Amino acid sequence: MASIGTIIGPTTNNTRNYKARVVAQFLGINLTTTPNFVMNVDNQKEEYLAKYPSGKVPVFEGANGLSLVDSSAIAYYVASQAGSDSPLLGQTAEETAEILQYMFFAEADFMPALAGTVYPLLGYMPFVKPSHMHSEEQLFRFLGVLDAILLTKTFLVGERITIADVVFTCDLAMAYTTYLTLEDRKKFRNVTRYFKTMINQPAFKAVVGEVTLCVERIKPQASANASKKAEKAEKKAEKKPAEQPKKAEKKAKEVEEYDDEEEEAPKPKAKSKLDLLPPAKMPLDEWKRQYSNTTPTKPNAMNWLWEHLDEDAYSFWKVEYKYNDELTKLFMTNNLIGGHFNRLERARKYAFGNLLTLGKDDDNMVWGYFIVRGKDIPEEVSDAADFESFAWTAADHNDPKTRAEIEDCFAWEGPSLPKECYDGKTFK
Length: 428
Ligand SMILES: N[C@@H](CCC(=O)N[C@@H](CS)C(=O)NCC(=O)O)C(=O)O
Known about the structure:
Blueprint: E1 5-8, H1 15-27, H2 46-51, E2 59-62, E3 67-69, H3 71-80, H4 93-122, H5 129-149, H6 163-178, H7 182-187, H8 189-199, H9 202-208, H10 226-239, H11 246-251, H12 284-293, H13 297-308, E4 314-321, H14 330-343, E5 351-360, E6 363-373, H15 379-382, E7 390-395, H16 400-411, E8 421-427
Helix pairs in contact: 1-3, 1-6, 1-9, 4-5, 4-6, 6-8, 12-13, 13-16
C-alpha cells in the first residue's frame, strides 16, 4: 500500500507525533515520517512558516495534496483512511460523539493541566510556583475523573480500542514518564491499568518502544532568573536535534526513553493457520459439549478429557493477570474477565479455558488455564486488544501438579487453587 502522506515533525520524544503513527500501525496504513527533522530549527524555516504560520509540529501533507495541522486531527484523518467502518472510529453518531468528547477532554482539559505542571520543570516555560500548583491541582482532578470513568471500563468508548484511547494514552505518556510516581500510580489505579494495557499494545510498542515510568519527579528549577533558564534551554534545543533540554533529560531517569523505530510496511491479514493443521482426533467442540453436559466436572468431565485428548493437536497454557496487585472489588475483577473474553472472540473456535476470580475484595487475582489448538499461542489469542495484560505460560498437563491445577481450575474448586474461588468464567 502506498503511503497516504507524510507526518512532518520530530519522530522521537514527541507524543503528538506518535498519535497518527500509532493509528497507522493499528490499521496497517503506510505513513511517511521525517526522522531527520530538527525541532525549533526546521519548523522555524521560512518555507515552513509560509505554509504553517504557527510554527507548530506536527503537520501533515497528504499524497492527495491535503494539508493539516493538529496532531489529533491528523490522527483522525489517518484513522478514516480505513473506511467509514474504521475500527478506531465510531460506528454510530453516539459513539463518534463519545470519541470526540474524550479527545477534547484529553486536549482541552487534561493536556493544559499537564503542560502547566510539567513544562516549567522541563525548562520549557518559567517556573512560577502558584501557577504550577494550580495546574497540578487540575491535573490530579482530571486524573480522578478519568479514574472513575475507567473503574468499570477497559477502554473509553465501547468494548474496543478507539482513536480516543490512542490520543489519551499519548497524552498520559508524558504524565507517566515525568510526573506520576508509584504512589500516584496506585492512587489512580484504573488509569494506570488502562495506560499499561494501551502502551503494551504492539501498535504502541512499534512506535513508542518501551516506556520507563517516573521514579522521581523532576525538581523545579525555581529562581529569579527562571525565564533565562528557559531561554537557555530553548537555545540548547535549537542546537541539538532533541526536543527536551539534555540537562533535564539526564537529571531525571523519568524522562521517556523511546525507540526511534521506523514504521513497518503493513502486513496483510492471513486466514487462520490453525485451519490448515491436520484434523484433531478430539474436536474441541466435542470437549466443550462434554464439559457443559458432564457432571461432576471432577472427575467425570476431566477423565473424559484425559482419555480423549489428542496430545499432538493441542497445548495447555496457564494464564495469569499481570496486574493482580491493582485489583480491588471481586465483582470488578470478574467483569474484567468477561471483557477479556469478549475481546478473545476470534479465538472462540480454537480455544477453551477458565479464568477464575480468586480471593477477596482488595486481595484478589485472575488465574486460570486454557487449551488451544496447535502448540503456540495463536494469533487469534494474541491479537486480543488486552492480551498484553495477561501472562500466558506453557503448561505441561502430564506433570501431576499441573494436571491437578487444571482439574481444579476447570472445576472451580480444589486444593491447588492459590486462593478461594469467588467466581469465574468459562471461555467456550
Ligand atoms: N494542538 C497542537 C499543538 C502542537 C504543539 O504545541 N506542538 C509543540 C510541540 S509538541 C510545538 O510545536 N511547539 C513549538 C512552538 O510552540 O513553537 C497539536 O496537537 O498538534
